[in-house]
Amino acid sequence: MRSYDKVDDDNGVVTVDESSDAYSDSSVRSRDRRRKANTDPARSPFACQDGNVPDVVYSLKRFGKFDRLIDRRVSDKPYDKDDMSEDVDVAYDGEKPVIEILTKTYSRRREGRPGVTTHPSRYVPRRRSRSRSGSVDSVESGYDSGQTAAVQVRSPTMIIHSEHLANALRAVVAYYPNVDLSGSPPAFKAPYRPLYHHRRELAEYRNNQPSCHDADYAETTTRHIDVLLRFLADNLGDAIRLEEERHALETPLATHQYFWLLLKPGIVFYTKKHHIWTAYVLSSFSSPRGSDGAYRVTGWLLESDGHRLERNLEEFTVSRWQGEQPIASLSLVPESFWGDDLAAQGGLTMREKQIKEGKLCWELLKRPTYMQYDGELIGSWPGEDEQRADQTGFMRGRVICDDAGFSRFWGFATEHSGRSRSPSYGRSKYLPRPVDAPARDHLPTALPRCGCRVCSGDRPNNRTDSSPYRGLEGLCPSKDTPPDNSDLFYLVLSKAIPGFVLGTRRWGNLYVGNLKPVETDKDAFKYLVVDDDIKRTVQALVGQFASNSTGDNLSPWGNDFVRNKGEGRIFLLHGQPGVGKTCTAECIAEQSGRPLIALTGGDLGSALSHSQIERRLNYFLELGQRYGALVLVDEADVYLERRRASDLSRNGLVSVFLRALEYYRGVLVLTTNRVRAFDTAFLSRIHVALHYKNLTDEHRERIWTHNFDRLARDSAGRVRVSEAARAYVCSDRDVRRIACNGREIRNAMQTALALAESDAKDDGVPDGVVTLCEKHLRAVLDMTRSFKDYAAQCVSNVLPHGEQAEYEGSEHGLPVDQIPEVYYNSSDDDL
C-alpha cells in the first residue's frame, strides 16, 4: 500500500497518552484471523461481514517503533479506538470502495510512570522486516516490559478509489496549487478543504456531464459524486451551513474558524499594499497555527521587471478574531464580499476602478510618459524604510513615468543619492528575493476536463478552451498585446510604476490613481515680460522644438537636427537675477509641450571629483535626450569659468563640461549673470545667446499686473485683488524705489497672499473668499526695502569703491555694450 502523505494541508497532530495495545493477545489473534480470512477466495477485497464493499471505508494504520507498520484495520464506520470489533482484512486487487478514510497512529514507547496503567510483561512473537538498505532488522523486541506509549493520531486522509469520481474532480478543479489530481488515486487531508471548495462545481457537473459519457458511466459518476457530497455534509455539514448563512446576511459575517471557506484558490481578493487597496489572485493558504492563530494567505499580482510582466507572489496575514466579524472589515476581503463606496471610488465599483487603473498602467509601461502627479508617493507612510534612494512623501508636480528607464538608470540614482536601495521598493528582478518568499506555483493553460478515455480522445489537438490565466505572464508592454481575458489581466496588474520626479530630479514609486495628463500653460508667453526682440526670437524657436508626439507620450531628441550631424542646441541666457532667464526656459517647455529638467549646483556638485561630476552630468543629459526634455543648468558660470594655468582642478572641470556639450544631442539652456568669467572655448559652442536688460518701471508694472491676473485665473475666483493694492504697487514712489526684480515680485505676492488668507480665516469670511489688500503688500514690501538697505550698507562697508560700482553694474560679467541683445553663433552652417 502506498503512503498518502503527498498532500499537505497544514493539519496539526493530536497527541494522547494511553496503554499500548499493539501487542496484546487479542491483537495477535485478530491478526491471525485476518490472515485466514484473506486466504478465503470467496471473500471480496474491502468486504465487510455481509460480503459487500461499502461506499465509504474507514481504515486505520498503526505504526510503532521506527515508524514501522504494526497492523492495519478496516471498518465501515468511522474509526473509534474503543470499538474496532468489525475490522476486516485489506486487499488491493479487486473491487474497491468509492472513498477510503485512512487514519494513521504512531506509538512512541517509553518507561512506565506512576499513575499510568501498563500491561504485564508478555511474550510477543518476534517479527523481522527488511530495511530500506536491504538488511533485515527486528521490528520490536520480543518482550513488552511494562512500557507505555504516547500515541500520535494523524489527521485522516481521504483516498479517492473511484476513477469516476477522480475524473469528475479533474473536470471541475481549475486552479488549486499543491493539489495534484494527475496521480491515481487522488488523496486529500482532513478537513478536505479542496473538496468543500468545489461542492457546487461537483453538483453542477453531476447534472451536466459531457454528452460523450454513456448512460452507465454517467449513472456511476452521479452515484459516486452523491457519495462524496453526502460524506462532506455529514462531516462538517451543519457548521458550514451556519457559516454560509452568515455569508448571506445583508452585512456578511464570518468566523475565524471557518474563514477558510472564503479562501478558494483562484478567487480575486483585495488587501492593502503600501496603504492602497490592491487586487490579488489567491494562490494558497495555510491553516491557523501557533500562538497567534493567524491565516497565512499567498496571493499574486503582475509586476514589471523593466522588460516583461511576471507574477510576484506575496504572503499576507489575517489575524485571529473572536466571534463574528463583518467580512468587509477584514484586512483581506474576497472580491465578492467587497463593500463598494462609490463616492470614495470616483463613482466606480472597486473592480471597475482597478481595471481602469490597470489599463492606464499598461499604457504607461509601453514608453516614457509625461504626467501630472498629485498625492502620496508609494513608500511614504510611517513604518516604511526611510533610508531610500527614491523620493517619498506628498508630491504635487510633473513626473515622467518610465519603467524601463528606472531599470536602466536606477544604479546611478542610488550612487547619486548616497543611499542604498530599499528592499521594500517591490521590483523583484532588481532586488534579492527573500529567503522565505512564497514559491511560484504553476498556472494552468487550459480549462479542466474529465480524464476518462472517451473525453480525452474526444478533444482536438488544438484546444480552444484556454484557461483564464493563459498568457498573463511574460508579456512585453512595448511589443505584446493584452491576453484574451483582459479584465483579469488589468485587474491584477500592479498599480505602481516608477517615475522620474522633475521637481527634485529623483526617482519615485508612483500610484497610477494619482496620475493625470499634463495641462500645459499655453498662455505662458503672454505673461513673460522681456524685450520684444527676445520674445519674438524665443517664440520663433519654440516651433522648432515642439514635441511631435501625440498625447502625453514623449519623443526623444533625434540625431538629425542637421543632416549628417548629431549636434544639439545650446542656449545662453544672461542678465541680472530676476529678469526672466529661468522663466523663459519654463515658457519654452510649456509652449513646446516638453519636460524641463532644471539642474542646480546640488544636482551636479562642485566639490566632487571630475569623474563624479562627469557621471552626474552625463546622467542628466542622457535623461534629457531620452525624454526629449529641455535641460536647464542654472548659474552655469560655476562650471564654465575661464581656465587658468595655476588651477588644474578648475581646468579639469571645464574640460568635463566642454566634452559633454560637444556630444549632447538635445536642447541645453544655460543661465548666468557672470558672462565675463566664461571660458572662451564655450563661446563657439553656444548657438543662441540672449541678453536680458535690467527691468524698467514699466516692466515691473506689467509683471505685477500679470501676477494679479494669473492669481485670479488659477484660484477660480477664490482670490480677489483690491484696486487699492493694484494702484499701490504700480504708482507708489517707495515701491518704485525698491526696484524689485521678477523673482522678488513673485515672492512678495506669495507672502502677501499668505497674510491675506490668515486675515480671512481670522475674520471668518464666508465662502472662503480671500481679498488681497494694500496693507498686505505694504507690509511685505516694507520688509523687502529694509532688507535691501541693510544689504547695500553691508556691501559698502566691505567692498572698495571701485568694486562697488562693478557690483551695482548691469551684470557681474561682460559689460552690456559688448554683448549683443540677440547673438547667433554663425559658425554653425545650419543656423
TrEMBL record:
Q: Where are the transmembrane segments?
A: none
Q: Please, which domain of life does this record's source organism belong to?
A: Eukaryota
Q: Which Gene3D superfamilies match?
A: P-loop containing nucleotide triphosphate hydrolases
The AAA+ ATPase domain covers: 567-696
Q: Where is the composition biased (Low complexity)?
A: 132-141
Single GO term (MF): ATP hydrolysis activity
What SMART domains does the entry give? AAA (SM00382)
Segments for region (Disordered): 1-51, 107-148
Pfam families per UniProt: AAA, AAA_lid_13, DUF7025
Specify the protein name.
Answer: AAA+ ATPase domain-containing protein
Q: What is the lineage of its organism?
A: Eukaryota, Fungi, Dikarya, Ascomycota, Pezizomycotina
